[in-house]
Amino acid sequence: MSEPSAPENPYGTPTTNGPSPIPRHQAAVNRVVRALLRVPGLSKLVGKRLMTLHVVGRSSGKIYTVPVAYTPHDGALLIGTVLRPWVKNLRTGTPVTLTRGGAPERFDPVVHTGEQEVMRLFDIIARDNKTNASFSGIGFDADGAPSKADIYQTWRQGGVVVELRPV
Predict the structure, then answer these.
(1) DSSP-assigned letters across all residues of 42-81
(2) CB of 31 within 8 A of CB of 37?
(3) Closest to 69 (Cα-Cα) out of 153, 155, 130
(4) Which of 161, 164, 163, 84 is closest to 126 using CA atoms?
(5) Contact predicate 112/90, CB 8 Å
(6) What residue spans carry the region label Disordered (predicted)?
(7) Of 2.30.110.10, 3.50.50.60, 3.20.20.70, 3.40.1390.20, which CATH number belongs to 26-166?
(8) Which end of the chain is least crowded, N or C, by CB within 10 Å?
Protein backbone atom coordinates (compact mmCIF):
# COMPACT_ATOMS: atom_id res chain seq x y z
CA MET A 1 0.00 0.00 0.00
CA SER A 2 1.47 3.41 -0.90
CA GLU A 3 1.61 6.53 1.25
CA PRO A 4 -1.01 9.18 0.45
CA SER A 5 0.62 12.09 -1.34
CA ALA A 6 0.50 15.65 -0.08
CA PRO A 7 -2.13 17.83 -1.73
CA GLU A 8 -0.86 19.53 -4.87
CA ASN A 9 0.20 23.15 -4.50
CA PRO A 10 -2.48 25.18 -6.33
CA TYR A 11 0.02 28.00 -6.94
CA GLY A 12 2.63 25.92 -8.76
CA THR A 13 6.06 24.65 -7.82
CA PRO A 14 7.67 26.22 -4.75
CA THR A 15 11.12 27.79 -5.15
CA THR A 16 12.26 26.60 -1.69
CA ASN A 17 11.98 23.53 0.52
CA GLY A 18 9.92 25.46 3.05
CA PRO A 19 10.71 27.08 6.40
CA SER A 20 14.18 26.63 7.84
CA PRO A 21 14.40 24.15 10.70
CA ILE A 22 15.42 25.59 14.06
CA PRO A 23 19.24 25.35 14.22
CA ARG A 24 20.85 23.71 17.24
CA HIS A 25 22.54 26.95 18.19
CA GLN A 26 19.30 28.99 18.12
CA ALA A 27 19.03 29.17 21.93
CA ALA A 28 22.51 30.76 22.09
CA VAL A 29 21.65 33.17 19.27
CA ASN A 30 18.42 34.14 21.06
CA ARG A 31 20.34 34.88 24.29
CA VAL A 32 22.71 37.23 22.41
CA VAL A 33 19.87 38.95 20.53
CA ARG A 34 17.84 39.42 23.73
CA ALA A 35 20.88 41.01 25.41
CA LEU A 36 21.52 43.34 22.45
CA LEU A 37 17.86 44.36 22.32
CA ARG A 38 18.11 45.51 25.98
CA VAL A 39 20.98 47.96 25.31
CA PRO A 40 19.61 51.52 24.88
CA GLY A 41 20.58 53.02 21.54
CA LEU A 42 22.02 49.76 20.25
CA SER A 43 18.60 48.15 20.41
CA LYS A 44 17.32 50.58 17.75
CA LEU A 45 20.08 49.46 15.35
CA VAL A 46 19.88 45.75 16.12
CA GLY A 47 16.14 45.70 16.48
CA LYS A 48 14.87 47.80 13.61
CA ARG A 49 12.53 44.90 12.81
CA LEU A 50 13.16 42.83 15.95
CA MET A 51 11.40 42.85 19.29
CA THR A 52 11.27 40.75 22.40
CA LEU A 53 7.94 39.07 23.04
CA HIS A 54 7.15 37.98 26.61
CA VAL A 55 4.73 35.06 26.52
CA VAL A 56 3.23 33.46 29.65
CA GLY A 57 2.89 29.68 29.57
CA ARG A 58 -0.73 28.50 29.78
CA SER A 59 -0.09 25.78 32.33
CA SER A 60 3.27 26.62 33.87
CA GLY A 61 2.87 30.39 34.17
CA LYS A 62 6.52 30.60 33.12
CA ILE A 63 7.47 33.65 31.07
CA TYR A 64 9.11 32.85 27.73
CA THR A 65 11.15 35.70 26.29
CA VAL A 66 11.34 35.27 22.53
CA PRO A 67 13.11 37.58 20.08
CA VAL A 68 11.05 37.79 16.88
CA ALA A 69 11.00 39.75 13.64
CA TYR A 70 7.91 41.88 13.06
CA THR A 71 6.23 43.95 10.38
CA PRO A 72 4.09 46.99 11.23
CA HIS A 73 0.80 46.94 9.30
CA ASP A 74 -2.45 48.90 9.73
CA GLY A 75 -1.78 49.77 13.39
CA ALA A 76 -0.80 46.20 14.26
CA LEU A 77 2.43 44.22 14.38
CA LEU A 78 2.64 41.02 12.32
CA ILE A 79 4.86 38.04 13.13
CA GLY A 80 5.16 35.27 10.57
CA THR A 81 6.39 31.97 11.95
CA VAL A 82 6.01 28.25 11.74
CA LEU A 83 3.90 27.06 14.64
CA ARG A 84 6.40 27.13 17.51
CA PRO A 85 5.67 26.05 21.08
CA TRP A 86 5.49 29.66 22.30
CA VAL A 87 2.73 30.44 19.76
CA LYS A 88 0.45 27.87 21.42
CA ASN A 89 0.49 30.02 24.57
CA LEU A 90 -1.05 33.04 22.81
CA ARG A 91 -4.75 33.58 23.40
CA THR A 92 -6.96 36.32 22.02
CA GLY A 93 -8.18 38.44 24.93
CA THR A 94 -5.09 37.65 27.03
CA PRO A 95 -2.60 40.47 26.35
CA VAL A 96 1.12 39.85 25.90
CA THR A 97 3.98 42.20 26.68
CA LEU A 98 6.69 43.12 24.22
CA THR A 99 9.67 45.43 24.15
CA ARG A 100 11.10 47.26 21.17
CA GLY A 101 14.03 49.09 22.73
CA GLY A 102 11.87 51.15 25.08
CA ALA A 103 9.25 50.69 27.75
CA PRO A 104 7.24 47.45 27.71
CA GLU A 105 4.07 47.58 25.61
CA ARG A 106 0.90 45.46 25.85
CA PHE A 107 -0.79 43.91 22.84
CA ASP A 108 -3.71 41.57 22.24
CA PRO A 109 -2.68 38.62 20.03
CA VAL A 110 -4.65 36.92 17.29
CA VAL A 111 -3.08 33.80 15.75
CA HIS A 112 -4.12 33.41 12.11
CA THR A 113 -4.02 29.80 10.93
CA GLY A 114 -6.45 29.78 7.98
CA GLU A 115 -5.07 29.48 4.47
CA GLN A 116 -6.39 32.77 3.04
CA GLU A 117 -5.40 34.95 6.02
CA VAL A 118 -1.95 33.35 6.31
CA MET A 119 -1.41 33.75 2.54
CA ARG A 120 -2.45 37.42 2.62
CA LEU A 121 -0.53 38.36 5.77
CA PHE A 122 2.66 36.41 4.91
CA ASP A 123 2.70 38.27 1.57
CA ILE A 124 2.75 41.58 3.50
CA ILE A 125 5.49 40.31 5.84
CA ALA A 126 7.65 38.97 3.00
CA ARG A 127 7.44 42.26 1.07
CA ASP A 128 8.53 44.15 4.20
CA ASN A 129 11.33 41.83 5.39
CA LYS A 130 13.13 39.61 2.87
CA THR A 131 15.34 38.08 5.58
CA ASN A 132 12.29 36.96 7.53
CA ALA A 133 10.79 35.66 4.28
CA SER A 134 13.90 33.56 3.68
CA PHE A 135 13.74 32.00 7.18
CA SER A 136 10.06 31.26 6.51
CA GLY A 137 10.87 29.50 3.24
CA ILE A 138 9.48 32.22 0.99
CA GLY A 139 11.32 33.13 -2.18
CA PHE A 140 10.51 35.78 -4.75
CA ASP A 141 9.45 35.60 -8.39
CA ALA A 142 11.14 37.38 -11.30
CA ASP A 143 9.07 40.53 -10.64
CA GLY A 144 10.23 40.65 -6.99
CA ALA A 145 6.87 39.55 -5.54
CA PRO A 146 6.76 36.85 -2.86
CA SER A 147 6.12 33.42 -4.38
CA LYS A 148 2.52 32.34 -3.70
CA ALA A 149 3.60 28.71 -4.10
CA ASP A 150 6.18 29.23 -1.34
CA ILE A 151 3.72 30.97 0.97
CA TYR A 152 1.23 28.15 0.46
CA GLN A 153 3.96 25.59 1.19
CA THR A 154 4.90 27.47 4.39
CA TRP A 155 1.25 27.45 5.48
CA ARG A 156 0.98 23.70 4.73
CA GLN A 157 4.11 23.13 6.86
CA GLY A 158 2.61 24.90 9.88
CA GLY A 159 3.09 28.57 9.02
CA VAL A 160 0.95 30.97 11.02
CA VAL A 161 0.79 34.74 11.38
CA VAL A 162 0.47 36.35 14.78
CA GLU A 163 -1.24 39.74 14.68
CA LEU A 164 -0.64 41.97 17.70
CA ARG A 165 -3.03 44.89 18.32
CA PRO A 166 -2.26 47.56 20.98
CA VAL A 167 -4.34 47.20 24.12
Answers:
(1) HHHHHTTTEEEEEEE-TTT-PEEEEEEE-EEETTEEEEEE
(2) no
(3) 130
(4) 161
(5) no
(6) 1-23
(7) 2.30.110.10
(8) N
